[in-house]
Structures are given as C-alpha cells and as structure tokens.
Amino acid sequence: MSKRRKLTDLKPTTGLVKNALFNILGDISELRFLDLFAGTGQIGLEAERRGAFVVFVEINRKRANEIKRKTEKGKVYTGDVLKVLPRLGEFEIIFADPPYGYQNYKVLLELGQRHLPEGGLFIVEHFKKTDLKPLTPRGLEIEEERTYGDTVLTFFRKEEG
C-alpha cells in the first residue's frame, strides 16, 4: 500500500475544533504559522485570514495546488512533512494534523521543536487513543490537551533555556 495520502484519506478538522483552536490561540496577527499535513488548507487559511504569515506543507500535489490558489500570501510546499520540515525556518506556531494511524509522532515532535523559538507552540491534532505523552522529546512540555469527541488537540510549549 502506498504511503502517499489519497484524497479520500483526508479528515478535515471539524468546525468545532477549528473554532476552539483559534479561540485558544487568540491574536496571531504577524506571527509565523506552519500548517503541516495541510490537507484542504483550512487551518492555515484561517490563520492567514487572522493576520499570520502561513507556510503550508501537503504531500498531495492536487491539494497543494488547490491551497496555492486559495492563499493570498502563504507559501506552499508539496512533499512529505518529515522531508520538507528540515528545510524550513522558525515559526511561533506549528500546527500538525497527521492522518489517523500516523506512526512517526516522535520524529515529528523532535523535528518540529527545532523550528520553534523559546516559548513557541506546537499543536498536534490526533485521535483520542493516541497518547503523545511518552513520545514528547526533552525541550517540549505538554501545556494542555483538549478533547472534542474522538479528536484531541495537544498543545506543546517549547521550554525556555
């Protein structure tokens, strides 16, 4: 079976989760926001609408091209998140919504924290039965988890020092 995400593999973030996410984040204008596993791009596009500078990463070329058509100022990378991420700069907020059943959370968290400034936020949307606590690398701490049905938003903060 191919590791590439098919269009049918998408699980767009529900409106409830998206609204909750942006209510928690508050004012994100002028911040650098990274949308990993962007899918339809709805999270990054909302961040852009709220004044953030957004970079999207999506493996599916058709979806990435669709995001390119929708974004006003954002940059879109097509490719595997774990291969694209090392080439990117620093972001105050990183949002990742990997497909359910994703197996590389530990690597994702380790790579992601390298792109956060001290105090930066890494948010992972995941299935409620996925426990990220034992996969959390040194230097990131879980600030909070919010559950919405089968979906959890885990908020990691990059430690200072």
Description:
The protein has 5 helices and 7 strands; from the N terminus they run αβαβαβαβαβββ. The protein is an alpha/beta fold. The chain has a 7-stranded mixed β-sheet, with helices on both faces. The longest helix has 11 residues, at 15-25. It is globular. The protein starts with 14 loop residues before the first helix and ends with a strand.
According to CATH, what is the class? Alpha Beta
Residue-averaged pLDDT, rounded? 91
Q: Can you count the beta strands? A: 7
CATH superfamily placement: Vaccinia Virus protein VP39
What's the CATH topology name? Rossmann fold
Uncertain parts = 1-8
Pfam families: Cons_hypoth95
InterPro entries: DNA_methylase_N6_adenine_CS, RNA_MeTrfase_RsmD, SAM-dependent_MTases_sf
Protein name: Methyltransferase
Keywords: Methyltransferase, Transferase
Brief characterization of the structure:
This protein is α/β, with parallel strands linked by helices. It has helices spanning 15-25, 42-49, 61-70, 81-84, 105-113, and strands spanning 32-36, 53-58, 75-78, 93-96, 121-127, 140-148, 151-158.
